[in-house]
Amino acid sequence: EVTLVESGGGSVQAGGSLRLSCVMSGLTLDKSDMSWYRQAPGNECELVSLISRVTGAYYADSVKGRFTISQDNANNSVYLQMDSLKPEDTAVYYCATAAYNYWGQGTQVTVSS
User: Fold this and answer.
1) In the prediction, which pLDDT does 79 show?
2) CA separation for the pair 88, 91 (Å, rounded)
């Protein structure tokens, strides 16, 4: 069984930072590229960032320059460092495998102005 568990969400003021973590079990990072998605109320789920074993990191234009994706193979974990947060970053953030379609349960990020 493959499980992904996110943590690190919370409430911050605009301009603040949060670091999301995603620990995966049942599948190692060398088997799949990893993604972070987010979904705000009333909005569609949006790809925020992806880390590829071949092409490196991808970022949505809305977060480019503010968010950084990274991974730690030893801990089978993926991270999303979020800086200069804006109210429009408020959403539930999900970690997912790019292959096999496994998703975590999500972690809430709330940014107040």
Assistant:
1) 98
2) 8
